[in-house]
Amino acid sequence: MKKLVALLLVVVMSFALIACGTPQSTTSDQPSQNGEGNKDGKYDIVMLMDNVTGSINDGSFLEGSWNGISKYCEKTGSTATYFTPAEESKEAYLSNIEQAVGVGAKVIVCPGYLFEEAIFEAQETYPEVKFILIDGRPHNADYSEYKTADNTYSVLCAEEEAGFLAGYAAVQEGFRNLAFFGGMAVTSVARFGYGYVQGADYAAQELGLNQGDVKMTYWYSGDFIPSPEKLTTVTGWYNTGTEIIFSCGGSICDNAFSAAETLGKKTIGVDIDQAEESDTVITSAMKNLEKATYDALIDFSEDKFPGGQDATLGTAEDYVGLPTEESSWRFEKFTVDDYNKIYEKLKKDEGGLASGLLTDADIQAPTEIPVKIVELQYNN
């Protein structure tokens, strides 16, 4: 029912004319229209959609970034909208950037690695506009040059730390047959997965478990779109012993939620607190995208925009973690106190715990992750 309501809301909102707080979906050939309280058709902030990971209400990555914009608008009285490209290409993204400049955007927020090439060019073309790139670094087409100009702020989150906390908590709770269900094997997804495996392994060692006591199925589906085939795959995992799945990849989480709801199993959410998405969500490996976006916009408003910087934000800055609110905490054995202890170890990098996590997303096979106890199966 929640998914049906969310779908209906997206359909309704796609026809709305808005200012900040009520999103409007547009395409490169359908310019933004005037929003209420914004009679000149101009907007202070434009967020670009990538046309891959889902709707603005995806319950994940895009929604988190948009929430940060909405919070900023509520505080400052600024106006915002978002554009959805006609297709997934650098040219389409550049067209949307041109469109955003045309409606007066002072700041353009781009959540996702797909914008890296477009911003590499646009930051030079529009030096008077500020760009906030979430989960990416601007680079040219062949990756031979990276450049974050003075009008661009590039933000990465330490996904491996959030994944670590989720894997650690799952094993401490008592789960022994785990799975990682990823979308595309891009840096952010891979880091979530690597951290998840290492967190599970760390907990297993603390508990004195034996080699192979914890089993992990690990798979990248290749995209971020839910499908009957993916649903069949994760259902098969549950039917053959998997107890909990960490799904990481925008809308594909819906497949894991559906399978778990049908079979009475558990899931782990991603990016934002997904407890409201499904009763099966026992916790969520969160990147505080709302805070990252909001803080960057506040810096802009205070003439402290961190242009030219490439930031990686993790537990040390309180940008990643698990939700601890009572409504979201669904563990029965693993306590908030237990969580706070392991969180502080990561935050202080005790014993090199955080700095020692594997973050090299160029490794092709997750079986290369150095673990001592977890038996890792790469699902082809």
Describe this protein's structure:
The chain is built from ten helices and 13 strands. The protein is α/β, with parallel strands linked by helices. The strands form two sheets. The protein has a seven-stranded mixed beta sheet, with helices on both faces. Strands 2-1-3-4-5-11 form a six-stranded parallel beta sheet, sandwiched between helices. Helix 2 (61-76) links the parallel strand 1 (45-48) and strand 2. Helix 2 (61-76) packs parallel to helix 9, helix 5 (159-173) runs parallel beside helix 6 (187-206) and helix 7 (228-239) packs across helix 8. The chain starts with a helix and ends with a strand. Mean pLDDT is 86; it is low at 1-37.
Layout of helices and strands, plus pairs?
Blueprint: H1 2-13, E1 45-48, H2 61-76, E2 80-83, H3 90-102, E3 107-111, H4 116-125, E4 130-134, E5 152-157, H5 159-173, E6 177-182, H6 187-206, E7 215-220, H7 228-239, E8 244-248, H8 253-263, E9 266-271, E10 281-287, H9 289-301, E11 309-313, E12 320-321, H10 336-347, E13 375-378
Parallel strand pairs: 1-2, 1-3, 3-4, 4-5, 5-11, 6-7, 6-8, 7-13, 8-9, 9-10
Antiparallel strand pairs: 10-12
Helix pairs in contact: 2-9, 3-4, 5-6, 7-8
